[in-house]
Amino acid sequence: MSQVTTQQREQALEDAAFWFAALQGDQVSVNERKAWQQWLADSSLHREAWAQVEQIDRQFRQLPAQESFQALQGAGRSRRQFLYGLAGLAVALPFAWTQRHTLEASLTPGTRHETAVGERRQLALKDGSQLWLNTNTLINIDQQAPTPELYLMRGELYWEAANHAQPLRLHSDYGQVDATASAFGMRLQDDSALLAMSEGQAQVLLTQLPTQVSVKRQQTLHFNQANSVLNQGVSANAQAWRDGFLVADNMRLEDFIRDLDRYHPQGWLKCSAAIANLRLVGHYPLADTRKVLNTLAFTLPIQVREITPWFTLIEENKNISHS
To answer: What are phi and psi of 19, to 5 degrees?
Structure first.
């Protein structure tokens, strides 16, 4: 019997969460229940994942309101972090994931700065350079080093160097960024990092490679510890979040909901596959994610359904005509 991979377990958990949501509806068809039963029968991994989701829901409902909120905060906002939560950490150990980063920060030089889910913050460094922290971000800033050094442990930042500012060094699990006369954004994803250079240039040294990658103005580097891909152009969202907006330029709804989920403080947002390819255009304010969802439901053939306090499903509204 082949060994089950982490990716397969995560996919099973996500599928289980989706089926759990679908079965909470008022009008679940016989065919839908048969499809769910077939999914359960297909694999013992599916049955284990289903049992975990049911257990999490039972535990979550038993928590007082404040502890429920803290559990959601502790689970983190990325897909991988939330799936760890489904595995038991979000409720049994609400702060396990964030404590890991907090411990890392306590062992790292510099002063710690942290934002909550949905929070954004601007900081000024001694040399006049500006630093913005996006939602759910944790960073240490060492201004005592010969040149300013940043340690990004979670989330996303945007750096804008002052005139005649010293070069900057940015550390992450995936590599080291050395930037001069620059303005750039850096975002940590589940298993990689994304560097978007608005101005200036940077040299990136991957953790497991001895050679540097050069990133110039209006270029984007997607990298992990051993691989990198360099692309031309910088997404508008590399900076738009500083002004409190999420920009959609012919963006798939599923991708939009995945990005909006990072700012949503009340659980997990999931987009149904049936509406995943609907397209969006516009600037959406991040201060009230619930209002954004209501706006989408008003302008698109979708409905927003809160399945549990920790799970909101965005699905097709079958009561709206498509003619």
So the answer is: -65, -40
Higher pLDDT, 168 or 33: 168
Task: Assess whether 270 and 308 both reside in one domain.
Answer: yes
Amino acid occupying residue 95: F
Identify whether 165 is part of a domain.
yes
Q: What is the pTM of this model?
A: 0.72
The upper half-sphere exposure of residue 304, i.e. CA atoms within 13 Å in the direction of its Cβ, equals 17
Q: Are 265 and 229 in contact (CB under 8 A)?
A: no
Measured CA to CA in angstroms, residue 272 lies from 108, 171, 277 at distances of 41, 37, 10
The domain tally of the chain equals 3
Strands 268-271 and 219-223: unpaired
Is 222:231 a contact under the CB 8 Å cutoff? yes
Indicate whether 288 belongs to any domain: yes
- Last residue of some domain: 81, 99, 117? 99
Q: Does residue 32 sit in helix, strand or coil?
A: helix
- Is 1 within a domain? no
Both 123 and 205 in one domain: the answer is yes
Strands 268-271 and 311-316 come out as parallel
- The boundaries of the domain holding residue 168 are 108-236
Asked whether 251 and 242 are in contact (CB, 8 A), the reply is no
**Which positions ≥6 away from 140 have C-beta within 8 Å?**
105, 108, 109, 110, 111, 112, 113, 150, 151, 153
Helix (H, G, I), strand (E, B) or coil at 28: coil
Identify the DSSP state of 314. E
Please write the tens of the pLDDT for every residue from 101-127.
555 555 565 689 999 999 999 999 988
Strand pairing class (168-171; 149-154): parallel
Tell me, yes or no, whether 323 lies in a domain. Answer: no
End-to-end CA distance of the chain: 50
Q: Which two tokens stand for residue 308?
A: 């549990």
Residue 126: exposure state from Cβ atoms within 10 A (0-12, 13-18, ≥19): exposed
Contact assessment for residue 133 and residue 123, using Cβ atoms and an 8 Å cutoff: yes
The residue behind tokens 């304010």 is 285
In DSSP terms, 214 is beta-bridged to: 203
